[in-house]
Write a structure and sequence with these properties.
The structure holds 2 protein chains of 2 kinds. Chain A is mainly alpha-helical. Helix content of chain A is 74%, strand content 1%. Chain A has 14 helices and 2 strands. Chain A has a two-stranded antiparallel ribbon. The radius of gyration of chain A is 19 Å and the shape is globular. By secondary structure, chain B is of the alpha/beta class. Chain B has one domain: Rossmann fold (3-Layer(aba) Sandwich). Chain B contains 10 helices and 10 strands. Chain B has a 6-stranded mixed beta sheet, with helices on both faces. A 4-stranded antiparallel beta sheet of chain B has the order 2-1-4-5. The two termini of chain B are 33 Å apart. Classes of the chains: A mainly alpha, B alpha/beta. Chains A and B meet through helix 7 and helix 8 of A and helix 2, helix 3 and helix 5 of B.
């Protein structure tokens, strides 16, 4: 099937990459690209596919990071199990925020602000409560083993995040071809028309926010296990929300591969400037500049350069 | 098929729909006419769940559906189109119609086949791969009709699907609507194009200032002084007269 050519080729390249480029730098680079692709896609399936723009997706990311970490550090629960708990918690928080906002008819920028408010509230809460380690955050005790979701070799992390990235792209591909995805596109394009044609817009929006929250929270658990340290600012901060949104916008919102492309660029700029200088914030300046150029010349995102056949035109 | 009893919709101090009652018989093409601002669109909105009625009841196929959500009403078999067309602008015509078709099937190929069949029925098969945003007014009106039809309605409420069309486009769409009825769908249409109302509708309701002021066969109504007065009062008499030689 020709429809499978692009994803299969991408997967083959991604599987081979760490076997060819074996340095820590190269593998770390790959991990970061795939990590941003996962959380960017989590934002994209809600913001891009369903048109529910969020400024506060960090609320899901942080929920995931804290959920598995607290279970692990305080209750000794294995982080692989914690990953599932995080996804469930992310789905719950997503469904809750969506149900609350959409029940009161909040749309567009109001919805975006509600998500931002939730992320900030969660940040302040985790900062204030001792149970979550307060402002100091939580340190995951070092105990390197694959069974403990702390791979002795980076390549283990690489393949773990690759599995999540593949899942996120599979979800996006499914949305492009399924009834659920068609309904989300209808909601994005015109909610009244969607309702007139029999779509329960409230339910569909709650569903996609739950899915988006689950995926994003899984990314949060991965982050915690990769860096073995989380604090409220890092996981609930506005920076994370903006990163997810930018990854998707720069690559191409509402497209299957946009977040992957955006993640590659974000990582390239981030790691590149870090390798060249240690000026803090330079990467963000470059990234902001790139964003302006891309919005000016490629309003649909970098994906337009690739002319992929499974872009936004496909149902 | 449809029974509306004492339906009112009040905006601030304005009774946009004022205790309107009417019936649409199964298998009919019924019309709703009235001067601009009479409350026709609001009446449709109150019937289909887009506006919560302040008074009155709506019964559809024997079931009281007053105040139900639009998507539930659509699932029961009553669907409306929008006077101001509401296309899914970035999607293709095919994808637009498929959204309607997905109401009764989760299967993509089945929905696509249904979309193509409906597109042929309304005469837009050649436009299936066009983006909705690029359609002409006539194309958008047809798309409204096609999407609604794809949901397999029992009752189709059409809000001025002919407004903005030129005479030859109107001539094309009249038989399409008749064909829809002949295929078993009851049609209730708001229309300013009198020629279309005359040739399509068997029974017409006249709305003025939110009230149903007359009902009957279109030829009879055209000579009814109450109806003519309602239009003249709004300076819309030319519309009636113009229709005679349009
Ligand atoms: N959402 C609303 N809020 C306040 N007033 C409204 C609203 N919708 C409609 N109205 C008012 O209700 C009245 C009826 O409007 P409506 O659109 O139903 O008329 P109509 O008969 O469809 O007119 P037209 O022939 O121009 O389409 C108008 O005076 C309009 O301004
Ligand atoms: Mg109207």
């Amino acid at each position: 099937m020709s429809a499978w050519r692009v994803p299969v080729a991408l997967l083959a390249v991604a599987l081979a990459y760490p076997l060819v480029f074996r340095t820590n730098f190269a593998i770390n680079f790959g991990v970061l690209v795939l990590f941003f692709a996962v959380i960017g896609q989590a934002w994209n399936i809600a913001g891009g596919f369903a048109g529910q723009l969020s400024f506060g997706h960090a609320v899901f990311f942080g929920t995931g990071a804290y959920c598995s970490t607290i279970l692990h550090v305080k209750l000794g629960i294995n982080p692989w199990l914690g990953l599932w708990a995080s996804a469930a918690a992310g789905a719950l928080v997503g469904a809750f925020i969506a149900a609350l906002s959409f029940r009161f008819g909040l749309k567009g920028s109001y919805f975006a602000l509600i998500t931002l408010a939730f992320a900030e509230a969660f940040r302040i809460l985790t900062n204030a409560v001792e149970f979550t380690g307060g402002g100091l955050g939580l340190l995951i005790p070092l105990k390197r083993s694959a069974a403990n979701f702390q791979f002795p070799e980076r390549i283990g992390f690489y393949y773990t995040i690759l599995a999540l990235a593949a899942l996120s792209i599979a979800i996006a591909l499914w949305l492009k071809r399924s009834r659920f995805g068609a309904r989300l596109a209808a909601i994005r394009e015109n909610e009244d028309a969607a309702r007139a044609l029999g779509i329960d817009t409230f339910r569909e929006k709650v569903k996609i926010m739950a899915l988006s929250g689950a995926l994003c929270a899984a990314g949060g658990t991965f982050y915690a296990q990769y860096f073995l340290y989380i604090d409220p600012v890092v996981v609930f901060g506005a920076d994370k929300s903006v990163e997810m949104l930018l990854v998707s916008m720069i690559g191409g919102t509402g497209t299957v591969y946009g977040p992957l492309i955006g993640a590659f660029l974000l990582t390239l700029v981030g790691e590149g400037t870090r390798a060249l200088t240690n000026a803090q914030g330079l990467s963000l300046i470059i990234y902001g500049g790139l964003l302006i150029v891309i919005i000016a010349f490629l309003p649909n995102g970098l994906i337009d350069l690739f002319k992929l056949r499974w872009g936004r035109r496909r149902a | 098929m449809l029974e509306v009893e004492g339906l009112s919709k009040i905006y601030g101090g304005l009774r946009a729909v004022d205790r309107a009652s009417l019936r649409v018989a199964e298998g009919a093409i019924a019309g709703l006419i009235g001067p601009n601002g009479a409350g026709k669109t609001t009446l449709f909105a109150a019937i289909t769940g887009f506006a919560l009625p302040d008074e009155g009841r709506v019964r559809f196929a024997g079931v009281d559906i007053t105040g139900r959500a639009p998507h539930r009403i659509c699932a029961q078999g009553m669907v409306r189109t929008f006077q101001i067309t509401q296309p899914f602008a970035q999607l293709s015509v095919r994808e637009n119609i498929m959204v309607g078709a997905y109401l009764h099937t989760p299967d993509r190929d089945e929905a696509a086949a249904r979309a193509e069949a409906v597109a042929r029925q309304v005469g837009m098969a050649a436009l299936l791969d066009r983006t909705a945003a690029g359609l002409t007014v006539a194309g958008r009106k047809r798309l409204e009709l096609a999407r609604a039809l794809a949901t397999r309605p029992k009752l189709l409420l059409l809000d001025e699907v002919m407004a903005g069309l030129n005479p030859s486009e109107i001539d094309e769409i009249i038989p399409v609507i008749r064909g829809i009825r002949d295929a078993g769908v009851t049609v209730f249409l708001i229309e300013h194009v009198m020629r279309a109302v005359m040739s399509l509708a068997e029974n017409v309701h006249v709305l003025s200032y939110g009230k149903i002021i007359a009902e009957g066969a279109p030829r009879v109504l055209a000579a009814d002084p109450v109806v003519i007065e309602a239009y003249l009062g709004h300076g819309a008499a030319q519309r009636l007269a113009g229709a005679a030689h349009a």
